[in-house]
Design brief:
Elements (H helix, E strand, L loop, with lengths): L6 E3 L7 E3 L2 H33 L3 H28 L3 H29 L4 H21 L1 H9 L6 H27 L5 H23 L5 H18 L7 E7 L6 E6 L5 E5 L2 E7 L4 E2 L2 H12 L6 E5 L5 H7 L4 E6 L4 H8 L8 E4 L2 H7 L4 E6 L14 H9 L1 E12 L8 H11 L4 E6 L4 E7 L20 H9 L19 H4 L1 H16 L2
Parallel strand pairs: 8-9, 8-11, 9-10, 11-12
Antiparallel strand pairs: 1-2, 3-4, 4-5, 5-6, 6-7, 12-14, 13-14
Helix pairs in contact: 1-2, 1-3, 1-4, 1-5, 1-6, 1-7, 2-4, 2-5, 3-4, 3-7, 3-8, 5-6, 7-8, 9-10, 9-15
Length: about 525
């Protein structure tokens, strides 16, 4: 026979109220903490799970936060209305179990939903993807707070304390979930596994309630078992590739890292959140991406003598190793420590040949007391560079770190066509606000290479050497080095720390770039 959930009690405020037994009360407090933590985990993981397809721009995070907030508002309202009508705890735990099941099933549909969202502009696509995938489970979990307040509150005199305790416990759970997923879980587990474990925990909380306090149904337990069996393979199995073989997959604080290789073994790809960041010929031990040769080649061509180089962003270490193998002193600043072992194992990077610093590039520059002959800025995160490295103040810090005659070299995705050139033109104007001379190279394919120096008319001081370039991209390297592009001087604006609207004005270009790169990933 089922144990009674509540018992009648007469109080001053009401002739008949309901009191929750101490054991059940503690379980309800535990439920509030778990659901509070799960809400934050789902909010953070939602953006992380979508980032391989939609990116990590402020549009994606804004959409995820907005969907979370409206879902919480709807859940709070629905939970309060339901509790006033039917004070039956099984209804709440069914709602929580429904959230777990729905969220777990998203593991099966994240990829098709995300690719569908790519058909819209970035802002609308991000909102739609977040809403389809995460609105319902977040709203169902949000019902917990107001529902439990109504269940636990036995009279008016203790409503304030109950609201305070449940809100505090839910917030503590959110705090713990945020720290856990942000600092302890993401670097070590795939995002899909973390989401699966969160759903499993919610399912177990529901099963625990039905077993301990409402022994009338075996269905919740069966659903938890089904949840485990159906979704676990989708949480743990990697993607099936058609043209390549996956050699490595790992999560990090800055995206999912992968190494895939052509079945012939002739080309190795490094990917961050599904986007190809570099290609490598393991037999020749050379990059097959022209931008790596442009970065090193421009640094050498625009300076007379290179003894010390600073690389902000190591990629997989190909550019730093180019300089180190020539006897140059190389300092490398890389924000993502998870990249280092990948570069060492799969791309012949040797950390002992350089001075490697794990740090944010801007933070390093602000404290740097050393000067260099060349600074190579290649700090890509997905399909764009972090905006805080592309401002007047950031370039002023670079200028202070350059010796007279030194050069800054930048690799970026940008357009030069009028009406689409806001980012490229803004970067040119911002560099000219700090440096006397700026020159751009590019072939009109979206890749633009900047050189900035203290010379008013930057010219080659040394002839570029194409012989060291991989044969597959040698012609493209020579044509890019010989090119010169320009933007409308009246377009764009000087970017500052206080005002840097690039993500907004360059959103369309980035949508096109990300869509192209994401669709290319599907063909691997």
């Amino acid at each position: 026979m089922a144990r009674p959930e509540t018992r009648a009690r007469t109080t001053v405020d009401s002739p008949l109220t309901l009191e929750v037994p101490a054991g059940l009360r503690r379980y309800l407090y535990f439920t509030a903490m778990v659901t509070g933590g799960a809400i934050m985990v789902i909010e953070i993981l939602g953006a992380k799970l979508l980032s391989p397809y939609l990116g990590t721009s402020h549009f994606v995070w804004t959409a995820q936060i907005a969907v979370t907030l409206i879902a919480l508002a709807c859940g709070y309202y629905a939970g309060g209305r339901l509790a006033d009508r039917k004070q039956k705890l099984p209804l709440l735990y069914w709602a929580i179990l429904g959230a777990a099941l729905y969220c777990a099933l998203t593991l099966l549909v994240i990829e098709p939903v995300a690719y569908w969202a790519l058909d819209f502009n970035l802002a609308a696509g991000s909102l739609l993807a977040s809403a389809v995938l995460f609105f319902i489970p977040l709203a169902l979990l949000a019902m917990t707070g107001p529902f439990l307040v109504r269940i636990i509150t036995s009279s008016v005199w203790n409503v304030g304390g109950n609201v305070g305790r449940l809100t505090a416990l839910g917030t503590v759970g959110s705090f713990a979930g945020t720290l856990l997923v942000g600092y302890a879980v993401i670097p070590f587990l795939p995002n899909s596994v973390t989401l699966y474990l969160t759903c499993l925990l919610l399912g177990l909380v529901c099963a625990g309630y039905f077993v301990l306090y409402h022994r009338k149904s075996l269905v919740p337990g069966a659903l938890v078992i089904a949840l485990c069996g159906v979704t676990w393979p989708f949480a743990t199995e990697g993607r099936t590739y058609h043209q390549t073989i996956e050699r490595y997959r790992g999560n990090s604080n800055f995206g999912r890292l992968q190494v895939v290789e052509s079945k012939s073994g002739s080309v190795r790809y490094y990917l961050n959140d599904n986007l190809v960041q570099n290609t490598y010929d393991p037999a020749a031990r050379q990059s097959v991406s022209v931008f790596t040769y442009m970065l090193s080649g421009m640094a050498e061509a625009y300076t007379t003598n290179i003894q010390d180089v600073l690389c902000i962003g190591m990629g997989v270490g190909i550019v730093p190793m180019h300089f180190a193998d020539k006897g140059v002193n190389v300092d490398v600043v890389e924000i993502n420590p998870a990249v280092v072992p990948v570069a060492e194992k799969w791309f012949d990077f040797d950390a002992k040949k350089v001075r490697l610093v794990i740090d944010d590039g801007r933070h390093f520059l602000n404290r740097c007391d050393k000067t260099y002959d060349a600074v190579v800025l290649d700090a890509f995160l997905g399909d764009s560079s972090p905006s805080h490295l592309m401002t007047r103040e950031a370039f002023a810090s670079v200028r202070k770190s350059l010796r007279p005659g030194g050069v800054l070299v930048i690799n970026m995705f940008g357009e030069v066509e009028p009406g689409k050139d806001f980012f490229t033109a803004s970067l040119a104007r911002t560099l000219r606000a700090v440096f006397e001379g700026v020159r751009m190279h590019g072939l009109g394919d979206g890749a633009v290479f900047f050189t900035a120096t203290d010379r008013e008319e930057p010219q080659f001081l040394r002839v570029p050497d194409p012989e060291s370039v991989h044969l597959a991209v040698r012609d493209e390297f020579e044509r890019t080095m010989a090119s010169s592009v320009a933007t409308d001087p009246s377009s764009g604006r000087v970017l500052t720390d206080n005002y840097n609207p690039v993500e907004y004005y360059d959103a369309k270009n980035r949508e096109v770039t990300r869509r192209r790169l994401a669709l290319a990933f599907r063909g691997l």
